[in-house]
Amino acid sequence: MKMYTTVSAKISEExxxxxxxxxxxxxxIIRKAIRDEIRKAHNKALIEKxxxxxxxxxxxxxxxxxxxxxxxxxx
Length: 75
Description:
single chain, mainly alpha
């Protein structure tokens, strides 16, 4: 079972009224924003890791790799 915690945000009364008028659920908006930011942070970290291995990968000969994979499959 997942554990949950409460996160709150203060918004102006005008913003709250606008949310009501538009039929928007602030809880869902906050959840989606948090998920999006987590995904962005993960992607950014992944890109940084990719950049760090790029010098090694760029030295690899793709034709040799493909050849080795094909040879391995034939065994």
